[in-house]
Amino acid sequence: MTTAFTGRASAPERRRAPFFTGVSILALLAAGFATQAGAQTAPAPAKPADNDVVVVRGFRGSLQSAVQAKKKDNSIVDVIKAEDIGKFPDNNLSESIQRIPGVSIDRDAGEGRTITVRGLGPGFTRVRLNGMEALATTGGRDSSGGTNRDRGFDFNVFAAELFQSITVRKASSAETEEGALGATVDLQTPHPFDYKGFTAAASAQVQYNDLSKKTNPRTTFMVSDRWFGGKLGALVSVAWSTNDKYEEGPSTTRWENGSTDAQTSANRFHSVSTDGGLTFTPIAPTPAATTPGNPGGTLSDLSGAALDVTKALHPRIPRYGHLAYDEGRLGATASIQWRPSADTLVTLDSLFSDFKANRDEQYLEVISFSRAGQGTPKTDIYNYTINPKGEISKASFNNVDVRSENRHDNLDTRFQQVNLTVNQNIGDKLRLKAFIGHSTSVQDNPEQTTLTLDAYDVQGYSYDYTNPNAPVFNYGTVGGCTVAQACYWQVSSSTAKGDASLVRVRPNRTIDSFGTLSLDFDYGFSDNYHLKFGVNRKDFGFHTFEYRRSTATYGENITPAAATYINANLAQFTQTQSLATGGQTWLIPNFQAIKTALHFDCNCVDPTYGDWTLSNTGGSRGNNQDAAETDNGSYIQLDFKHDVLGIPVRGNVGVRYVVTHQSTSGFIDATHYVAIERQYKDTLPSLTVTAEPAPDFLIRFAAAKDMARPLLAALTPGGTINFTGRSYTGGNPYLDPTRSNDYDLNFEWYPDKDSLFSLGLFYKDIKTYIQTLSRTAPYGTLGFDLSLGTPFNVDADTPFVVSSPVTTPGGALKGYEINLQKTFTALPKPFNGLGGILNYTHVDSQITYLTTTGTTRNNLLNMSPDAYNATLFYENDQFSARISAAYRAGYLSAIKPGNNADFQGKNKTFNVDAQATWSVSKSFVITLQALNLTDQYDDRFNVYNSQTFGNVDSNAPLDYVHTGRTVLLGVRYQY
Length: 975
Description:
- Helix content is 8%, strand content 53%.
- By secondary structure, the protein is mainly beta.
- The protein has a single domain, classed as Maltoporin, Chain A, CATH 2.40.170.20.
């Protein structure tokens, strides 16, 4: 299979090569100029080396440091500091960020992956690593978004121990690069000049999960030192961990009706019984697809029970799921700092992460409920209950096709970044900062294979969704055999009875890269006025590709020879799978045994078992896309500090001008390749004013024009077709950015170094928005070769769900944040170590969405109307403990996700974590952590509101899965 991933560099990488050659030269010149300028300029008195040292100890110390950083900043920011050397408050960066007002997170496999800031999802947030914009991408299960192919940053790529601070910038300024409507998040790794002389720290933890019953290690190490009188320093940190965990629960893969109104596809149900299965009445009319010359019928041709079950919703693929994760995360940072004189500082930073998240997904499911035109739909329904929402919540069935599915993914995200910063004083008033950097994130999925066992025409299957979060399934028997016995199952290469058994092979890769060059100048007219100006260039590259089996005869189905062999030896090619909770046991395909026998990973034609060669043509062609974006920006900004009527006032005013050039390309079908060039310009003014009408009481006001560029995956003109799922998704290279006028008003009171009380009001006038518009259209109207659908029984009249992004009118977003932080030092000992943090955010935004029938208004996608975080902590010289709770209200995540659903979303979450430390000595600490004490379920849903069918449900179950609780016990040593 490795041959599928070899070849020349992608087009964006070739286009970027000259730029980075020139940038490297400029960086060396900048460093040389900085050193020369430092030698020629009359040196200012050198600062004592200890002035560089940042000393933060304990949770309370990190809070004090963060409060002071927030207070001193000219803009509206929130800050989180590491508690100690190599020790962040949480094990995951996003789970720390969620403690900040206005920030909520979304979890994948129980771990924080992406963030939403003030109702704006991950695509509206920029993340900078050591001052440079970057993008880290991972792969997830399909229902949680799958592989990240947009601008959102996946925080689970990095170990939290590698970072020293997080700053969330909620208001824009001219000196901060454009691209964020929600916030700019700065992640900072430690530097050697942050510490005195030689410093080292190490930790080791053992973590245990109560669902998987697995134990895993987590270790970190950091060492830093200085030489030559403190002028040269180096720091290295390493973090390594493994995590074996399970994720379990039921899912539906959406709901759908018994048929469409036009009846152009086969009915899902063949007949219906109203007497408990004694007699059955066929459901007419006969679809046109199976009766040539018959145009089919409409709902008006049906009546009684036949009409009721056809209009009602049923779960598309009702199933149990067991997902096993084998994760490993290795991260490292290195930093070298050189201060040849008091006027010059050169910093070289590098960051590396390798996050492996191999996943095995095993499902016990019914596949025939989702089938429209393939095979002979002949499922009979009886003993059914249709609830007031228009759903078949409980029923029994005959002639059902049951499937056991085993999907294996090897997932590996490798991130690398190197950047050089030169800070140089030129004379007494002018300062220069020269920056160059490059980062690459490669999300590699070299093995994504799905194998299935199938049972056709099973009698007596039933489901019961009376409790939608705990459905009850009965899978009947085949020849007296149950799903836990080999005699229940078979593999088939034929579609005569339904879906053939799968050997689906889809290796894929996504590459994101950033290159940045910037020159920033700061000219100080006086202590109160500074003029800042600069230029920057960013090159962003996006490249994704996917391979699939190239055979046109069997597509992704098993070959006849392979099916015959597996069936003859079925017992040796299956294994037992059981849910950790619930007791269901069934057989699944033995992935390793079948792989060894069939050699389906050889990317070759096997003389015995058929064609396993891979190609990037056919159905996978649309997932082979390239995009390159060059952003050239310049800005000018005046920072000021002055008394107005005796009130200290500070802030900045400026404007940023940026030219965006985009080049996108992709296949619109298997043979036609399209490349589009586009350029647009933005002028972005900004203003921030902070007044201190009373000591330690600040009033901040900010106004800015912002923009966020469209997702590069949405811009590429390529398309992706799914013959099994009957869907096609294509890009739109002419999308405009999302533009907004933003206003902020903050009131902040700092009664002492431990305390903060603040109220933040925000309003965003979002001028434009981007959404994916879905519609149903016959396959013949898509422009594809009709013969491509033949192996899947798809013809010109087969309905497909077609989705493409479009620019739509936006809407207002408004809300407020309340933040309270206090240590109760006035209490008598030992209670003076108590303290608390509480913040609450409310957001309101209604967006007009386009639909196939007009428009609808609903909440902005990814926006939770309400969210809060609360932490109660206690700390003294030897002992520290805290418990934290995070609540996020339900939110919508997608519009028109398919199967006539209006929206997809996720229900509210409430997570509780706890942590305690005991300092045995000044250097040795014992730690105990407990994560996800509530064992919060990932509860996702669909929204239906069909007047035609009478289906109205704002919470139709989609997924209800959990990962269990985790406990970590460890030690830390610091020298």
